[in-house]
Amino acid sequence: MVVQDLNNSMKSKQCKIEGCNSPVWGDGLCANHKPRKRIATQNLTKSVKKEKAIRDISEMQEFFLQIWKKKLHYSEVSMDYLGKEPLSVFFHHILAKEKYPQAEFDEENIILLTLDEHTNVESDIYKYEEVNKRREQLKQKYEII
After folding, report:
1. What is the pLDDT of residue 15?
2. pLDDT tens digits, one per residue of 14-48
3. DSSP labels for 46-58?
4. How far apart are CA 47 and CA 9, in angstroms?
5. Domain ranges, residue 91
6. Domain count, the chain
7. CA 131 to CA 121: how far, in whole Å?
8. pLDDT for 20
9. Are 143 and 101 in contact (CB under 8 A)?
């Protein structure tokens, strides 16, 4: 009885679109003419960006570990001991990875520094002569004016 009433109510109303004889639900449009919602891509985009960021961090960590295994665990400016554990603050990109992505994974572009030295060179890139010397070499290597 309920199904029959539903069928009767659908048959009595027709789609608002001219010439369409399809039965409608409450909004006056049939299933063929009802506006469809787009699939939310914002969350997908955020998810993809998050996955990429995680991959990038993981790739950088692996890169730093390779350098840590090859080099002595001392600051290349002051020769202060950095300890046994490789912390990301010990690794400084001489040419900024954001500005020079081609040098991001170049071992020559990485210099080991103490936390204080890294902080100092981030606020004044010309603070240490060793960093300045290597920057000039890298600029020549990458043909940067």
Report:
1. 76
2. 777 776 777 776 677 777 777 777 666 667 677 88
3. HHHHHHHHHHHHH
4. 44
5. 57-141
6. 1
7. 9
8. 78
9. no
